[in-house]
Amino acid sequence: MARPVLGRIGVWRRDAELTPDLAVSLERLGYGTVWIGGSPDGDLRLAEELLDATTTLTVATGIVNIWKDDPATVGASFHRIEAAHPGRFLLGVGAGHPEANREFSKPYAALEAYLDGLDAAGVPADSRALAALGPRVLRLAGERTAGAHPYLTTPEHTRQAREILGAGPLLAPEQRVVLTDDPALGRSLARQSMQLYLGLVNYTNNWRRLGFGDDDLADGGSDRLVDALAVYGTAPEIRHRIDAHHEAGADHVTIQLLTPQNTDPLQAFEQLAETLAI
């Protein structure tokens, strides 16, 4: 089975912020894939609803947490969706982070075992991807899935990930963006969005590998760290960062649009679609 076609640009959005109507609008604008962020349930009902409402859009999970739902359950959900919408769903899975999972122990072995379970459930390798940051899990993603979905990273990480993965596997990083002409607002929204992750060791370890230090991780994150992990500004400025990921080896970049609370995101998605060459 060929891996799903993601397109050049996708949209990452938390499950509570996704509706079939928004998916229809994003498809109309030309975005190739909608990523269901957070830890969507193993029944994958939201993915099915988004696919039911659209005709060409690919839907991916970013990510199903391996500690939350067993591979047999997720595998059965995958086959239900694949039968109705062949080739339009990518199952992204990952181990989450130790601070949120009491069971978190030997995550690499747990990922291997989960992939074994997906194999047993008949989920093809090319229809699944791994959340991956460090070299070891990146290699596992390339060996046993379509590829890697790194989260909250930089174009430099994309370059390193591509070197580890080699030429074939999928590389689909997430990129935070704020469309604004107010740099202070852009940086503020970006900083707010990453506060949780400053206390999660899998992310902080990855940033340390990229050259950030204790000063960057203190007091809500340094401007240097925030500016490296998020891009804010005009649509052309945002496109420059997206292009940097592609030039570094990304096949697909999924944007996480940050907006002030209670703001309709559709106008910003429309403006970005005109500039991002999707």
From TrEMBL:
It comes from the Bacteria. GO terms for molecular function: oxidoreductase activity. It is an enzyme of class 1 (oxidoreductase). Pfam families: Bac_luciferase. The keyword Oxidoreductase applies. Its EC number is 1.-.-.-. It comes from Sphaerisporangium corydalis. SUPFAM superfamilies: Bacterial luciferase-like. Keywords: Oxidoreductase. Residues 20-116 form the Luciferase-like domain. This is LLM class F420-dependent oxidoreductase. PANTHER family: CONSERVED PROTEIN, LUCIFERASE-LIKE MONOOXYGENASE.
